[in-house]
Automatic annotation (TrEMBL):
One of its GO terms (cellular component) is Holliday junction resolvase complex. Keywords: Cytoplasm, DNA damage, DNA recombination, DNA repair, DNA-binding, Endonuclease, Hydrolase, Magnesium, Metal-binding, Nuclease. Its cofactor is Mg(2+). The RuvA-RuvB-RuvC complex processes Holliday junction (HJ) DNA during genetic recombination and DNA repair. Endonuclease that resolves HJ intermediates. Cleaves cruciform DNA by making single-stranded nicks across the HJ at symmetrical positions within the homologous arms, yielding a 5'-phosphate and a 3'-hydroxyl group; requires a central core of homology in the junction. The consensus cleavage sequence is 5'-(A/T)TT(C/G)-3'. Cleavage occurs on the 3'-side of the TT dinucleotide at the point of strand exchange. NCBIfam families: ruvC (TIGR00228). Residues 293-305 have a biased composition (Basic and acidic residues). This is Crossover junction endodeoxyribonuclease RuvC. The lineage of its organism: Bacteria, Bacillati, Actinomycetota, Actinomycetes, Pseudonocardiales. Mg(2+) 1 binds at D7, D141.
Length: 305
């Protein structure tokens, strides 16, 4: 790749042509400056710079033109002249169809010396060493033009790759958006409604809304109705459970072996004390007529035993 580096200026416009690439040896093809007298009018000075750059473009035929970007300067008049000269060079390159790239001074210094704060002497020394020149290029504008060409040779491949990646990502994103919009439009046109899938049209809504049937209350989990089916009659679900009276409980404890604890057994009724029925079983025993005294005594003995 052949690069024409341009350090724009009205008084001196530095030009330098360098051949090379990433991983290849770089060499200096030509270096020089185009001058314009300060006493001339601005249009005449810009015309003289344009004529000099045209001769370099015709003679060396570069592949790309690298121009220093005007970043900031304390002298506003000098900054305006630099920008005007750079615009003339960019116009000439654009008319020839050559790509134009701009680099800031800090980028050039960092690419050549490794530090974005290097001075002109350090930049000139590194340019002389990199290009294996016999003597440092003079004036300093010529050395800056060669530094611009070297900077573009080393930075252009990465910048081009990044630009290519960005362009490819933009293309893929646009294609993806087009596919999504096409799929949404096709789906909205071909998707049938629920009534169409069922084969019938939806009934007209005349202000009446169907209400879902309410579930029956759950049956209580505790109490006398526990364990009964839900559909059982109310009388069956509310039937009281017969309770066990003291007499029957005493009989069961007496009949069970090992039940000899006196403290845990309930108080047993004596023959002289009247019985207080607690449940259905006691009421049945007390309601049965006593046929003989012998049976009553036998029952009393069994209870006391």
């Amino acid at each position: 790749m052949r690069v024409l580096g341009v350090d724009p200026g009205l008084t001196r416009c530095g030009l330098g042509v360098v051949n090379g690439g990433v991983g290849r040896t770089i060499s200096c093809v030509a270096v020089g400056v185009v001058r314009s007298p300060p006493e001339d009018e601005l249009p005449d000075r810009l015309g003289q710079i344009a004529d000099g750059v045209e001769q370099w473009l015709d003679e060396y035929r570069p592949d790309v033109v690298a121009i220093e970007r005007v970043f900031s300067q304390h002298n506003v008049r000098s900054a305006m002249g630099t920008a005007q000269a750079g615009g003339v060079v960019a116009l000439l390159a654009g008319r020839r169809g050559l790509p134009v790239r701009f680099h800031t001074p800090s980028e050039v210094k960092a690419a050549v010396t490794g530090s974005g704060r290097a001075d002109k002497a350090q930049v000139t020394a590194m340019v002389t060493r990199l290009l294996r020149l016999d003597a440092p290029p003079k004036p300093a504008d010529a050395a800056d033009a060669l530094a611009l060409a070297i900077c573009h040779l080393w930075r252009a491949p990465a910048a081009d790759r990044l630009a290519g990646v960005k362009a490819e990502s933009d293309r893929l994103a646009a294609a993806h958006r087009n596919r999504l919009s096409g799929a949404r439009g096709k789906g909205s046109q071909s998707a049938p409604s629920s009534s169409e899938r069922n084969g019938s049209s939806a009934p007209a809504d005349h202000g009446v809304r169907a209400t879902a049937p309410q579930a029956a209350p759950a049956a209580p989990q505790n109490g006398p109705t526990q364990g009964l089916p839900t559909g059982a009659p109310v009388s069956a679900r509310r039937r009281p459970v017969p309770q066990t009276g003291r007499t029957l409980a005493a009989r069961l404890r007496t009949a069970t072996p090992g039940s000899t604890s006196q403290s845990s057994s309930p108080q047993q009724p004596t023959p002289s004390q009247p019985r207080s029925p607690q449940g259905g079983a006691d009421r049945q025993v007390s309601a049965t007529p006593r046929r003989s005294t012998t049976r009553d005594e036998t029952t009393t003995k069994e209870v006391s035993g």
